[in-house]
Write a structure and sequence with these properties.
This protein is of the alpha/beta class and about 230 residues long. It has a single domain (about 20-230), classed as NAD(P)-binding Rossmann-like Domain (Rossmann fold, 3-Layer(aba) Sandwich), CATH 3.40.50.720. The protein has helices spanning about 30-35, 35-50, 85-95, 115-125, 145-155, 170-180, 195, 220-230, and strands at about 20, 55-60, 100-105, 110, 130-135, 135-140, 140, 160, 170, 185-190. The strands form four sheets. Strands 1-2-3-8 form a four-stranded parallel sheet, sandwiched between helices.
Length: about 230
């Protein structure tokens, strides 16, 4: 699929694709709370436009379709109950996909773009201390590992699959590991979700595991190390 394709409008291709990897999304969780229409156009209407091409779709979704009330990993059969506009519109996006694979993942980070790992590297180099939320738990997932696993997902029947890194941690745990691996002396001051005061509510626990044979990914620490190596940090 073209990198410059605007998913918010219908699009005509000269030749129908055999498969669409649909990773385009409104991912600014907090801004979605004040621009519900914008998030809906990208995450729901955009997905509907992708589906209208008539090809099987791999739709990348999120752990934020759950409310975090569990204290053991969410599996594919667990009921959804998103807390935020972002989670709601991603779930509605899932519902547009009738032929393909819905791949839910968790706390994605990578060597490009804006994400938690890159933000921590920048702040850790600038400051002596960073406040990081310590009461949300998930499985930070390296996007390269997720991309490699997608090929294995395509060998499975159409449906919903959870594909996330092994292990679990809090954002504060993740930040400490990043600083240690990168050789940064910055300290982590653990704060609560309430203290952080983000506009959008987040699930307190959103670890994902598969009961349907989705491919396992490496541990999140391995993903972190692989990402840092790709960035030339280690």
């Amino acid at each position: 699929m073209r990198a410059d394709w605007d998913v918010t409008r219908p699009y005509q291709l000269d030749e129908a694709p055999g498969l669409v990897l649909h990773a385009a999304a409104w991912t600014n969780v907090d801004d979605a709370e004040t621009d519900r229409g914008g998030a809906w156009r990208v995450n729901v209407e955009g997905t509907r436009n992708v589906v209208s091409l008539g090809a099987p779709v791999v739709y990348y979704s999120t752990d934020y379709v759950f409310d975090g009330a569990k204290r053991d990993p969410y599996v594919e059969s667990d009921p959804t109950n998103p807390l935020s506009v972002y989670g709601q519109t991603k779930l509605e996006g899932e519902q547009q996909v009738h032929s393909g694979w819905i791949v839910r993942s968790s706390w994605l980070f990578g060597w490009s773009g804006t994400n938690f790992l890159r933000t921590m590297l920048r702040l850790g180099a600038e400051r002596d201390e960073v406040a990081v939320v310590g009461d949300q738990r998930g499985s930070p997932t390296f996007v390269d590992h997720l991309a490699l696993a997608t090929k294995e997902v395509l060998a499975l029947p159409h449906g919903v699959y959870h594909v996330a890194a092994e292990g679990e941690c809090t954002w504060a745990d993740f930040a400490e590991e990043i600083f240690f691996a990168a050789g940064l002396s910055c300290r982590v001051r653990r704060i609560t979700t309430e203290e952080y005061g983000a506009p959008a509510p987040r699930p307190a626990y959103s670890v994902l595991r598969s009961e349907k044979g989705a491919p396992p990914l490496p541990h999140w620490r391995q993903g972190m190390r692989d990402c840092l190596q790709r960035l030339g940090v280690t």
